[in-house]
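anyone seen this seq b4? input:
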Amino acid sequence: MAAPDTAQIETAAEKFREDYLKTKDQIKKAVVGHEEIVDGVLVCLFAGGHALLEGVPGLGKTLLIRSLSEALHLHFSRIQFTPDLMPADITGTTIVVETEHGRDFQFRKGPLFAQIVLADEINRATPKTQSALLEAMQEKSITVGGETHILEKPFFVMATQNPIEQEGTYPLPEAQLDRFFYKLEVGYSSREDLSEILNRTTAGEQPKIEQVLDAPSILEHQSLVRRVIIAPHVQDYAVRMVMATHPGGELATPQVNKFLRFGASPRAAQTLVLAGKVKALLDGRANVSVEDIRASALPALRHRCLLNFEGEAEGKTTDEIIQNIVETLPTDVGVSAA
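predicted toks r here
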């Protein structure tokens, strides 16, 4: 395989950054504050992953996703997850229709047949319905009645969940959590942001969000992301960061051994590298740096590490343990030649 053209990637990075910032500016017309969350969602989009947003009601999670969908010239669909929602309600079903030649079977597509899907309050659906998302998220296809339907690209799922009011909810299994590129925790707005929210929402004005990107542009940018160069020592840093989350492993920190039950999967390493490539492009570089990897540690790893009983009893969070890894993991370990 030919070596990547550094100059060509740096030139393409200018267009990438321009489109990224145009999309972000459109979202900010409706969403006040939450700078890190907006950036996180856009990193997921351009890296080709899916985003999980967690926060109490009323913080603007759904508004952010709706605003993004309006800024993109893509087919958008919203699914409100409820305990009585069935898999066929989201994937579609085969129905009998009357035709001039008699009865015929036709497949009616469900709301998953879109390019950008808002899965609202995903933890309120039963595991059977949640699992219907798995194939779509991982394989970009849906199988109904033995027939596989390929979803239109790009395909991007943004899910929200409420960390409170857990009665009657179904926590996402680890296998599904691992399929989310980032888990983003949406916090409360600041005093200034809350005042601006009131100015925008109580004065009768509606922000007009313009479409700035279409499917071919997004796919082109996603392809560019994968062409960004990553040096062996930087890739090894991402590998070591993931290995450091494995209890009992050779690189595990004392906190990991004491408070974690399971560590991150290989998908976590893929996430760190791809997110690092997006951040490199935003900085106009054709090469990923160690700092690019470190910047994505929390959203990439927090939902892929599970606390043990002692960690839960002592009130620890995965964020604390991951931050400790970031602070203590050496960056200058040599890499042996393959």
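The chain has two domains: 7-190+214-227, 228-331. The chain has a mean pLDDT of 86. kinda curious what u guys think
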